[in-house]
């Protein structure tokens, strides 16, 4: 069983930046991803990255603003978020799965989430 711990969330003004981290422990993980969930909305895909980093997908609305990366030596995935907008406000979740995917059902292990709030 893998444990995931996210960090780096917080309150930022529109146009600002945050960097989320997710550290995995318990076993070596394969593909990793970030999802987010705003109040009253379903959990949605944000970004995913394969083990080698050769496969990366982004939600259209974050392309050019967010960058996913990973450090396999540390079993950690990052999400650099720039030019943040109020609509990016949500709880951000880290997830682990076998394949890089945009589908929430493809991921078997989840972190507890970290709150990101963007003020206008």
Molecular structure report:
With 120 residues, the protein is mostly beta strands. It is built from no helices and eleven strands. Strands 2, 4, 5, 6, 9, 10 and 11 form a seven-stranded mixed beta sheet that branches. Strands 1-3-8-7 form a four-stranded antiparallel beta sheet, with no helix packed on it. The relative contact order is 0.32. The mean pLDDT is 96.
Residues in helices, as a percent range: under 10%
Shape: globular
Number of strands: 11
- Beta-strand content estimate: over 45%
Number of contiguous helices: 0
SSE order in H/E notation? EEEEEEEEEEE
Topology:
Layout: E1 3-7, E2 10-13, E3 18-25, E4 31-37, E5 44-49, E6 56-58, E7 66-71, E8 76-81, E9 90-97, E10 107-110, E11 114-119
Parallel strand pairs: 2-11
Antiparallel strand pairs: 1-3, 3-8, 4-5, 4-9, 5-6, 7-8, 9-10, 9-11
């Amino acid at each position: 069983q893998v444990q995931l711990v996210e960090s780096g969330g917080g309150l930022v003004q529109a146009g600002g930046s945050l960097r989320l981290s997710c550290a995995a422990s318990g076993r070596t993980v394969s593909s990793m991803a970030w999802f987010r969930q705003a109040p009253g909305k379903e959990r949605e895909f944000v970004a995913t990255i394969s083990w080698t980093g050769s496969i990366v997908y982004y939600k259209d609305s974050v392309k050019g603003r967010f960058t996913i990366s990973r450090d396999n030596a540390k079993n950690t995935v990052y999400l650099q978020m720039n030019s943040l907008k109020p609509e990016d406000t949500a709880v951000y979740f880290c997830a682990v799965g076998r394949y890089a995917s945009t589908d929430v059902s493809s991921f078997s292990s989840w972190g507890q989430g970290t709150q990101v709030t963007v003020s206008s």
